[in-house]
């Protein structure tokens, strides 16, 4: 199956010489949730702006549904819904009117039943007659999603959709986005809340300095780069690490109270029994044992730091 978005050798250089994108290649599959992660200034918003037709590339090509975003912009814009970072809404308009207007803006015929379903899916139905200035920040973000969905796009871009939203509303929005994926909508998510990517995404793309560092299935990435640590609390602190334990790859904490055995992806896992036997042979007593597994945030930080 052809990707719904195909990016080839995409570059963007501004008049001041700053290069925001440097030969980006990326395919986005239809119906997936792709999390695009990167630090501030990495090029996330620039790439989204080009795909959505809000900015022009310096070179390269972007196809959306097989259409070129530059030469066939009318066709590509009909396929795309965008939820921007900024809360850009008409404060004195009602929820119903602003969502309905957005559908008409994209050339869609009136469809009150569709607008009703979208508002209900996003828990906005009870607020349909409220003016936007009467809503909380979280509710306004839901309105932005409703506007982006009003013309029935096949692709939805969410640029920091839960920034400034409380935890309860954030989880409600995750549920709404998951329902969208179930209907076949492709979702591209940028976020600073990496737990969102870990919770929702099918694949992870990491961008830094205008370049894609990797694109991986989330599960494969967690297996490949995730590490586990076995933490062994000592009843009596050690001054130095015994050579027999050092030979097994253990490390000693600065305060001498904890031994750490790191393993992952099958490496070192089979040595746990050997490690425990060696500790016993050294005459050491343990007060506690715990494990820690790398989160997606740990992996992201290590990837970005490794490329600095």
Automatic annotation (TrEMBL):
InterPro entries: AAA+_ATPase, ABC_transporter-like_ATP-bd, ABC_transporter-like_CS, ABC_transporter_ATP-binding, P-loop_NTPase. It comes from the Bacteria. Keywords: ATP-binding, Nucleotide-binding, Transport. One of its GO terms (molecular function) is ATP binding. Residues 5-234 form the ABC transporter domain. Belongs to the ABC transporter superfamily. This is ABC transporter ATP-binding protein. It comes from Rhizobium oryzicola.
